Amino acid sequence: MKRELTILLTLAALAASSGCFLAGRGGNGITEDPAPPPSTENEIYVRYPQILNLERKLDRASAYFYFGEYDLSEAALNDLTASIADVRELIPDADVCEHLDYLEARARCVQQRMSDNTIEHEAMCNITAALDSISRATVVEDEIAVELNFKTKHWLTYFQGRGRRHFAKWLARTGELKDVIEPILVEVGLPRDLLYLAVIESGLNLDARSHMRAVGPWQFMAGTGKLFGLRINWWIDERKEIIASTYAAANYMKYLYDLFGSWPLALAAYNAGEHRVAYAMMHQRTNNYWRLRLPVQTSWFVPKFMAALAIGRDPEAYGFEKPTENVLRFDIIEVARATELRDIAVAAGCSLSDIKSLNPHLKKWATPPEMVVEVKVPKGTGETCLARLAEMPRRKMVSYVQHKVAKGETLSHIAATYEVSVEELKRVNEMKSARWLHAGNILLIPVKDASRSIRIASRPSYRTPPPLPDDIGVPKLDALSEDDGRMPELDETDNGAAARPDAGGVECVVHVVKRGETLSSISKRYGKSISEILALNQSVSRNRIRPGDRIRIPLGSN
Length: 558
Fold this sequence. Notes:
Blueprint: H1 2-18, H2 41-47, H3 49-66, H4 70-90, H5 94-137, H6 150-160, H7 164-188, H8 195-202, H9 222-227, H10 242-260, H11 263-272, H12 274-284, H13 296-313, E1 330-335, H14 341-348, H15 352-358, E2 373-378, H16 382-391, E3 399-404, H17 411-418, H18 422-428, E4 442-447, E5 500-501, E6 507-512, H19 519-526, H20 530-536, E7 550-554
Helix pairs in contact: 1-3, 2-3, 3-4, 3-5, 4-5, 6-13, 7-10, 8-13, 10-11, 11-12, 11-13, 14-15, 14-16
């Protein structure tokens, strides 16, 4: 009762300050608050206490409206309308009818305001959705600059020559997967050009696997894939799932670009690792990718990407056909329990091979237990498939539990314990013979009682980037320009042999630190104080230098 009184007082204050039932929109037929009936309200309330109850119902409906509880307000107004009709039949008094008309007019006013607000909210949602759709469709053109140096030209020549057959196949696959990958890149805030990173990594082959065990179109190692939310186990490998792996790769590339602020450096870090690139930048004192000494594969990786990007932007200029837009189309359904792929195929009205082709990340004959997975089905069959799976008999919706084989157990004994056949156990666990069974083996047991399986299920998490460090020691080299700010390239055995001005015009030589040297011994060798050397080498620590470090030594009268 106290809470209702508080709401009514709040409502009264709002009504007093802003006008309770003024017209909310033009053209709605309600121009002003309905005039109260001429009869004295107190007399009506004394004679007919039912009217006071109707007033309270109206106040409650109005309070719900002002606090945004439209469903509750609508229900309260419907109850009020029914109560007014009942009172009209019981009390045919003229004054009462006049007062009831007044209450009905106020109720209609609340309903009109609620309708206007609902229409406005839906319109804003539609506008937001339209703007979001426009932003997704906006092409981010030529955001990554192509550097046409001798390495890039080498790859252009290769793709047009000996590698033409392979690149033509890769280019054709962009017509199939472009509309899947590019919207995700735009959503994460990356240029569409990064589509060609997957082109040179795997040729957009979802089943690609390197000799280093990198898997999928974006060639994720298992550790990096798991870090970015991809689930990898006996049942499933989301590195092969085009949507999940693209989100993971996009989140990783965004993180790398935020670290380095340069697309060549970010691409190099994708190939070699961010820590290796940061280490090279720190010790070589340059933020120019083209001047960094990196592993051979990485030094040719970025030019390969740029060559592929140049051809992808204008394939006809390089003698290739423009890829046909044979877009891969599908619906996505969520499967929350272990379900055989052949049952999904039957529910979707397609073949088992169609389901396996659309879902290369599903490694076994069924979706994994204890996991919610996204399964792609042919376009237009998603709703039907879900409905048919829901109607499928429970005996066909099998769950799985894990059983660790104890010493002395046989396959027939385990099958009898779980009330399944020996042949079913062998099929599920891909066993050709029961003689393969040993103590300590883990068997998957199909069980028809879903309560025997673990109920906690993992859900897809690839859309959310992981918490990663904002600073991994990337040197801040903003003061160095691409040309005059780079470190002089001297032979390591020729310490001090070449004198050149540094970025500030101070004439200096570069000393390459050798094993056993200290900052003190170097300063004595050149007759300079330690503070003079440190002033010219801000990245050098007074207490720690390593063999191979390059240190500028200022020249003067000495």
